[in-house]
Structures are given as C-alpha cells and as structure tokens.
Fold this protein.
Amino acid sequence: MSAAVKSYAAVDLGASSGRVMVGRVGPDSLELSEAHRFPNRPVRVPEGLRWDVLGLYAGVLDGLRAAGQVDSVGIDSWAVDYGLLDADGALLGNLVHYRDSRTDGVAEKVWATVPAAELYAATGLQYAPFNTLYQLTAARSTAQLAQARRLLLVPDLLTYWLTGEQGTELTNASTTQLIDPRTRDWAYDIASRLGIDLELFAPLRRPGDPAGLLRGEVLEETGLAGPVPVTAVGSHDTASAVAAVPASGERFAYICTGTWSLAGLELDAPVLTEESRAANFTNELGLDGTVRYLRNIMGLWLLQECVRAWGETDLGGLLLEASKAPALRSVVDAGDAAFLAPGRMPERITEACRVSGQPVPESPAEVTRCILDSLALAHRKAVSDAQRLAGHAVDVVHVVGGGTRNALLCQLTADACGLPVVSGPTEAAALGNVLVQARAHGLVGDLAGMRRLLVNTQPLTRYEPRGGTERWQAAQARLAGE
C-alpha cells in the first residue's frame, strides 16, 4: 500500500445545493475541504417542476476547476430521478423533479397489476409516490419516453457527460423499485409485468468500479491534466453517507440528516416481511453486500420551508428560542406526505396541530420546537421499529449529515431514543464518496477500516440522553390517537 497522500474530488449533490469537496487521503490521514458550492434550485415550468440539470453540470465543472489536480472523481446525489437520452445520446428534455405531481394516483394503477405486498416482497422498497417505478409508469404514454433509448439516474447522467461512458450504479439503482435486494440484480419479473423496459438502463456498476476517464473537452474546460479517472462510488448520497458512519461493531443505528432524515440499520440481508412493509421500511443496497434498512422521514425540509416562508431569519437565534419553548407541547407526523410539496409550511404545520386537537404553535420559535420535537419523535420510532422488525439491537445512534449542525435536534434525538447519540461527520456523503475512491486505489482497506479512519480523523460530538423516555412515549401515543 502506498504511503503517499492522494487527492479525490467528491461531487455531492443535494436537493437544495451541490458541492465539490476535495479529500486528501493517506493510510492514517483524511482531510476534507470545500472547493466549490452552488445552489440547486428547482424550476417550475408550464409542464411541472423540473431540475436545472445543466446548471448542476456547470457547477460540477466549476468545482473541478476550483479543486485543482486530483487522482479521481466520484459523484453522488439524491435518488430516484433520471434523464432520458435519444439514440444519439442527447438529453431529451428537462429532468422531472420527484416532488412533481405527475405521480399522484399512479401507485394504485401499479398495484392493480402487482399488488403492493407482492411488490414489496420482490423489491423490498417502501412506498413513496416518487419512486422511479411510479415515475416511469406516469411517463408511459409520453412522446419523450417513446423516443428514449437510454435512462440514466442523476449521478450516472453527469458521469456520462464527464466521460462519455454509461453505467447504472447499484446503490442508486436500488431506489428505483426495480432491483431485487436478495440477488442485487434487476427484478426482471416485476419490470416485465409492469411493461418497463430494463434495456433502457445501462449495465450495473458497483461502488469502486471504474467509470471512465474525463473527456478531453472536460480536461480543457477544468484545466486538469489527464488522464483523470472517474470512479463509481455509492452514488446514492445516503449510501455514501452510511459508508461514512464512524461506527465500531454492528450494534448501531444511523440517521442521515438533511432535507430528509433516513433512519435505520445496516444489515447483511433484507427484511421483506409484510410487517416490515406495513411499517414503511425500505431495503436499499449499500457497500460490500450490506443492506440499508431504513425509513424515510421528511427531515429538515420542514424547517427549511418554514425559514423560506419567514424570510430573513437568524437561524441560530431561532434555535436558541426554540430550545426555551415548552417541550413536546405539540407534535406532527414528520413522515406525513401532506408535508411533501413546497409552500405554506408554517400554516400547514399549525393546521395539523389544530386538527389533532393540540395547542397551536404561534411564534416561529414555537413552530420550530414543534418541528424538532416531531423529528426526534420520528427518529425514536424509526430506530425502535427497525430493531424490532430486524431482530437487531443497538447501543448507540450515529447522526451524520447536515443535521449534525443542529445541536438541539441531536440532543432531542438522544432524549427521545433513550440512547447516546454520536454526531458527525457533517459532510458524511462526501467523505464516503472520497473513501470509496481511495479504497479503489488501494489507500484504505475494508468498510471497517474506512470507519476506523473516520473515528481517528473526524471531529465527533456525543450526546447523552436526559431523563426517561416516558414523555416521548406519551407524545407518540398522542400522535397515534391513542
């Protein structure tokens, strides 16, 4: 193993911003710095809500220019969304945003052909209206899909533009509801029955696989000296984030926090029971044969939308005031699809409290406390349910991602779960991205070795639970109408 330090560019695209980070990795060292950050603003056009994927690609190129010479590039992003290419490899129109309304009512049409229980037993994916399977069903009669010869998920599309090579990275493919988590291959029978042509997808890649070299035009535009390889990473950002959970052993839960909260366990095999489906848990694929057994929770999207509605807001001051507000006075279901669409979030939260007969939060601080208590309560339920359904007990909860900056949320999560919370790293997805590249180039070892390097190099904060969990149990019962 080389003792030299190497540099890796991690392109990490979130639902509200993109960033290009540079990781410098040696056998006993890991440093991460930000080269470039840029906004990711969805655009509403007459036909619906769309991603500005050309703006994202421009941000990636700007970031690679700012990063300077690197030994490899890897890309991760949010899941489920895709671009369609024609026979010449040209993009057919703007990418549809997963919050677009085109999938309203589509699931019921799918279930008429493949019942929901059967679909779960075959794919292990929780119901979400925006899963790629439902998006493709909604697009079935469109001229664009009829013309398409290739479908590339977001990270694979950007990789294609960088390298000219096409592939479908497995961890992200597992969010389409078209992968069998037992075989880690396509669910051919499901796709056939639903009339989905799997030939649209490029061949599957695994994290660590080579994904091509930067094209000459890209080298010229970024000022990089070739050859620069692109390496497939856990291209679903949650897969990269879970790879960067600084855990020792197997008795841990994780919560990847940001626009969404993804709360669950890392397992060796999927849980495909009817009870698991009813509890809305998903089985997504991770590194080295692992399964990310988790529940999607609405996450800090609730607070982000409120802050957007309130305008100029001192977030630090708001969180300080929220910490002084009465605890668990009012809570909402942070997994409720009623909160999925953008707009009027403060009013929708107060209305949910009113309808459920709870005190209505009035000030921004009270609304914020309601959101954070509700998220902690959802974290508690997800961690508890996952342990029960998988038969896998945990001793600690690891919180990674943007929510680690929110100390109040981390403490409330520890209180709600009745377990210590270890918070950090914040840029978990980028670190997981970097470490998979470094491993592919021989600098780090297996998943356990990657995690030891994180423990030894990244700042972590520990939160101990305060008091008992009885009041959280009572709030959970209240929310369930018991």
